[in-house]
From TrEMBL:
Keyword Membrane appears in the UniProt entry: yes
Compartment annotation: Membrane
Lineage of origin: Eukaryota, Metazoa, Chordata, Craniata, Vertebrata
Entry GO CC: external side of plasma membrane
Keywords from the UniProt entry: Immunoglobulin domain, Membrane
Listed name of the protein: Ig-like domain-containing protein
Keyword check for Membrane: yes
Source organism, top-level taxon: Eukaryota
SMART domains found in the cross-reference section: IG, IGv
Domain named Ig-like: residues: 1-109, 112-223
Organism: Poecilia formosa (Amazon molly)
GO molecular function ontology, one term from the record: signaling receptor binding
GO annotation terms (biological process): regulation of cytokine production; T cell receptor signaling pathway
InterPro entries named among the record's database cross-references: Ig-like_dom, Ig-like_dom_sf, Ig-like_fold, Ig_sub, Ig_V-set, IgSF_BTN/MOG
Length: 324
């Protein structure tokens, strides 16, 4: 009977981009390991990522999040290569992972940590922009029988493409009539998503997943940040336009409100509902100083024209659309 301790305080750092087929978490030793030892990979919360015991992988012991996404080399105890392959890494996999080797009596024989940082591509756009492209390009061979899904961080369905056409029955209402993908994605590998009529509520992490009949083939994340639009006013300008465009379908029976929220106090600048402007609701400071497009129900352009703006004044405005 024998055992040894090989405890390392050194933490290996690994960086990888989301969209890679896998990342390797390295863990190797030149020391002899007992044939009846077990290997456990855990995350920083102690969740089991991968378990190798009795000369085989034990998937029942790993949590669902890592199921079917982990793999170790053949005969790891004999070769000393205990590295873990983690498939389809996303931002949620950013973590500190620990590899532990246990004796038959659960003594720790070896322990090593690996810090993984999964970098997610970031896209920034101004609120009110007409559209933005969430890029996703793959070299994986694609077939029309594959299904492409875009989901947001709340697991809402953003867009589905299957059997050569859009399949939007399960698309969340928030994204209805606002998404578009390339039709020739099987030839080009371009799975990018166009998201239209941006608001700050579109700031999110979006995941593109490709499924074949055998399971997942590809996954990539894109983080979208919708920033406040910056508009500069020149000295002596007669008017300035605060841009904002939405899907025309959102405006049917809706109430549109523009308000100034900085400097305080918050005041109503312009209200539109019942097919007309509701000027009695606006603050007296903006009387006869605001105008919206007459054809906004057809175009979705709910930009506000502010007459006689204050040059040099730092003011913040917001617009919201409410539907019952």
């Amino acid at each position: 009977f024998f055992f040894f301790f090989l405890l390392s305080g050194y933490i290996k750092s690994i960086e990888v981009d989301s969209g890679q087929p896998f990342v390797l978490l390295p863990c190797r030793t030149n020391d002899r390991l007992p044939s009846n030892a077990s290997v456990e990979w855990t995350d920083r919360h102690g969740n089991k990522v991968h378990v190798f015991q009795n000369d085989c992988t034990v998937p029942e012991k790993q949590i669902q999040f890592y199921r079917e996404r982990t793999e170790m080399s053949v005969d790891p105890l004999q070769t000393g290569d205990l590295s873990l392959k983690l498939k389809f890494p996303t931002g949620a996999d950013t973590d500190t992972f620990t590899c532990c080797v246990y004796s038959r009596r659960k003594r720790i024989l070896m322990k090593k940590q690996v810090q993984l940082q999964v970098k997610v591509h970031q896209v920034e756009v101004c609120s009110g922009a007409d559209k933005v492209l969430l890029p996703c390009q793959t070299s994986v061979e694609l077939f029309k029988s594959y299904k492409v899904e875009w989901k947001d961080h709340e697991n809402r369905m953003v867009h589905v493409f299957q059997d050569g056409s859009d399949y939007l029955e399960n698309q969340d209402e928030f994204y209805r009539n606002r998404t578009e993908t390339n039709k020739d994605w099987t030839q080009t590998g371009d799975l990018s998503l166009t998201l239209k009529h941006l608001t700050y509520e579109d700031s999110n992490i979006y995941t593109c997943s490709v499924f074949s009949p055998d399971g997942i083939e590809y996954k990539k994340q894109v983080q979208l940040k919708v920033e406040d639009c910056q508009v500069e006013v020149e000295e002596g300008a007669e008017s300035v336009q605060l841009p904002f465009k939405v899907a025309p379908e959102l405006l049917k029976g809706a109430r549109v409100v523009w308000w100034r929220y900085d400097p305080k106090p918050v005041v109503t600048v312009h209200t539109y509902r019942y097919l007309s402007d509701q000027l009695q609701e606006q603050d007296h400071h903006y009387r006869s100083r605001t105008k919206m497009n007459e054809d906004l129900l057809q175009t979705g352009d709910i930009s506000l024209t502010l007459i006689r703006p204050s040059a040099g004044a730092a003011e913040s405005y917001r617009c919201a659309v409410w539907r019952r």
